Amino acid sequence: MGKINKVVLAYSGGLDTSVILHWLIERYQCDVIAFCADLGQGEELADAKARARKTGASKVYVADLKEEFVRDFVFPCLKANAVYEGGYLLGTSMARPLIAKKQIEIARRERADAVAHGATGKGNDQVRFELTYMALDPAIQVIAPWREWDLHSRSDLVAYAKRHAIPVPVTPEKPYSSDRNLFHISFEGGVLEDPWREPPQEMFTLTVAPEKTPDHPTYVEIGFTEGLPVAVNGRKLSPARLLATLNEVGGKNGIGRVDLVENRYVGMKSRGVYETPGGTVLQVAHRAVESITMDREVMHLRDALIPRFAELVYYGYWYSPEMEVLKRTIDETQKHVTGTARLKLFKGNCTVVGRKSPVSLYDRAMATFEADRVYDQKDAGGFIRLNALRLRLRAMRRQGKK
Question: Are residues 46 and 189 in the same domain?
């Protein structure tokens, strides 16, 4: 690595990145610019700017990215119905390329030599950050402290912070780690490393336990235009405001808790627990509108792409050529996904109870079980015989009649 004069650090204000900020100054004798991305983590960023300054940052950027996050990262994944390994809605995975993109923009503006992140050498985030850095600026130098220093645990970091008077809130350690943005909150590590152990109820932040939710259902209507959610209960909202509204209503009804063991890109299995109330509601609503507006074969083709799309997001290939192709393809499938879904939220369940669209492919006259004049049921006989031809030939060969 060449001489480092200036580094842009993805800074959250927590223990890890506060220690990293000081360590970078000490190790590389350079200026460190702290970048705080506001993705909807709330009060966690309240005094991050002041802490960064006290720790030695030469400059601090705080950017409100909530609208961009939902519009340009959450919604494209929603249009793809992207779910990793059947359960994970990719909340953290979607956020990292946006943070990394903004770091590169600041690095160019400030003429920095390098960027740095606080991801460990065991996880997925290091890959997501660094693939984005390299895709957007192949000449940038990358510093990953967890792969360089001799600090190996949280207690090591706490000791380092005390030794250097780094202003971080040193509180009793939570028995797990968490990461939050407007789309979700994730939990892993600590007590959750035992996949047999039930998550502690006090851990959950965005959702009420299903058994403690109201004893009456909540109904919500979500309007879509070309695959994008645009309104809740008839009220048009910006992307971030729409998601925040559904987080609130979904959370009150216990929607969106997931407990799974997933396969990390680096090769190991990891147990994660997630709360994604608004995202879960949007997934169900989106599927409902698709059900009456998408051609069967187009839907099945798009569905075949979901695992690949989700893998690319999870693995960190947001800015890859294959992702560009997939996003364009999925955008094409969504041109007629316009309409409204009505959902019933009750005791942790999100159920579709209605769907309508001005461009619906559903034809009641065609589908009815009552008498009709638009469909000749006798036509089905020939259709079935033609589709059964290869099956009949195979059976005749087995029976020695061919």
Answer: no
The answer to whether the CB of 91 falls within 8 A of the CB of 266 is: no
User: Known catalytic residue: 137?
Assistant: no
> What are 246-258's pLDDT values in tens digits?
999 999 999 999 9
User: 0.85 exceeded by the pTM?
Assistant: yes
Tens-place pLDDT, residues 306-336? 999 999 999 999 999 999 999 999 999 999 9
Given the residues 177, 178, 320, 360, the one annotated as active site: 177
Residue 170 has pLDDT above 60, yes or no: no
Indicate which residue of 125, 128, 291, 302 is catalytic: 125
Q: Do 150 and 217 reside in the same domain of the chain?
A: no
Which member of 12, 16, 113, 128 is catalytic?
16
Single-letter amino acid, residue 93: S
Q: Which of these is catalytic: 12, 31, 96, 113?
A: 96
Whether 125 is a known active-site residue: answer yes
Q: Which domain holds residue 237?
A: 178-294+336-356
Element (H, E) at 35: strand 31-38
Let me know if 363 is a catalytic residue: no
Q: Say whether both 58 and 159 belong to one domain.
A: yes
16 as an active site residue: the answer is yes
- Cβ-in-10-Å burial (0-12, 13-18, 19+) of 69 comes to buried
